[in-house]
Q: What sequence folds into this?
């Protein structure tokens, strides 16, 4: 039988989840929302929101962190899905580029852009969060590539991951400037074109 503390903990967890889900919905709708709007959407009181979070920014940051986590995990799953083998630089390159193509990076960029109120040049925080998305996983990906491709030098793996991750950040800036984080097919087509151009640039070098 569930005890009173267990019920309180379960209720607290449900309220927190409701707040985060409501915030994610509001962000996805392109809204910059107030505490009252969030409370209404989550069907909780203002006080309940502040029992869980210090501010609206805290709520948005938590939602962004969850979203980043899902995208990064998908990226890593694609990278680590293949079987281990002797491997070459070409094998590692193919694995990483497949992951970049399969991951919804435009969706991630759009979500962050909306959640953080745009990527204003006067506010470095949105770009810092986006860059952190890739930098925090680069070392792990390089290690995974080295493990699964025994013939690949760890330094080569790190350089390859770094080149592709930084290239993705660069084309993201161009994509945002051209689309303002639109999600229509034209914007996604442009992303695919930029991605292929970046991949070819890294593949052939200078």
A:
């Amino acid at each position: 039988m569930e005890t009173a503390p267990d019920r309180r903990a379960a209720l607290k967890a449900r309220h927190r989840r409701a707040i985060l889900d409501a915030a994610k919905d509001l962000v996805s709708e392109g809204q910059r929302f107030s505490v009252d709007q969030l409370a209404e959407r989550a069907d909780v009181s203002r006080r309940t929101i502040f029992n869980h979070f210090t501010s609206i920014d805290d709520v948005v940051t938590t939602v962004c962190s969850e979203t980043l986590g899902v995208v990064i995990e998908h990226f890593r799953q694609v990278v680590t899905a293949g079987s281990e083998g002797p491997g070459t630089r070409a094998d590692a390159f193919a694995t990483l580029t497949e992951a970049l193509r399969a991951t919804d990076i435009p969706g991630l960029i759009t979500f962050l852009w909306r959640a953080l109120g745009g990527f204003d040049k006067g506010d470095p925080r949105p770009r810092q969060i986006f860059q952190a998305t890739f930098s925090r996983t680069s070392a792990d990906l390089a290690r995974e590539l080295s493990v699964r491709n025994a013939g690949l030098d760890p330094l080569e793996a790190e350089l390859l991951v770094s080149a592709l991750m930084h290239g993705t950040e660069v084309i993201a800036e161009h994509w945002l400037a051209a689309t303002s984080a639109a999600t229509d097919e034209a914007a996604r087509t442009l992303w695919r074109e930029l991605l292929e151009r970046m991949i070819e640039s890294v593949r052939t070098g200078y």
In short: Residues 34 and 134 are 30 Å apart (CA to CA). Residues 57-204 form one domain.
